[in-house]
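As the next step, I wrote out a protein sequence along with its fold in token form, included below for the reader:
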Amino acid sequence: MNIENIEEESLSEVVSFTEFDHHILRSYEAVVDGIASLIGSYCEIVLHSLEDINKSAIRIANGENTGRKVGSPITDLALQMLKDIERSKRNFSRSYFTRAKGGVLMKSITVAIRNGDDRIIGLLCININLDAPFSQVLHSFMPSEEANEAASTVNFASDVDELVDQTVKRTIDEINADKEVGNNAKNKQIVMDLYDKGIFDIKDAINRVADQLNISKHTVYLYIRQRKTEDGEK
């Protein structure tokens, strides 16, 4: 066998992955589905395993953009981007433009997935269809009437103290606006709502809530225990 054949075989060799490698790659399947749900049908996301590049696609969303499916091989450009990532010491490639089947223009980026040994075991490729009618793309980002009504206000705080304070203030306003909650039950309901929002997972949140509501932290603990009892928690 000549050197050229040996090199060709080494490039297409099936690399044995550990179970932990497989676990890492499986954990990215939700990322594929999540990005697709956020951006819409004109964004194709492909999760590649480098264990076997002949059938590397192990998860794909919106594959109709390029006609690919699970089990499809890696692309030559993805291999090129892999080299780009390895040379640059980054975990993602430069953005690039490609033409899919039918001449569809795509803007893409490739993100490396590494295992505990810092070895690249997979690639997350995100491809946006630039030939899609802009009105349809824009429509996918617009909320439906039901979603618009259910939209939540988010506290983009700069630190955890601000996060707690903003959440407490918003919750106080919500409870004060609720005519069904009596004045003598407002603090209890506020604490229970804050518990449901997970705010007490933050260190020292109980003390800050107690100060803002002008109640003792023992009272806050009492209301939290009552909520846990209602939820059947231990």
Remarks:
- Confidence is low (pLDDT under 50) at residues 1-11.
- The first helix runs from residue 3 to 11.
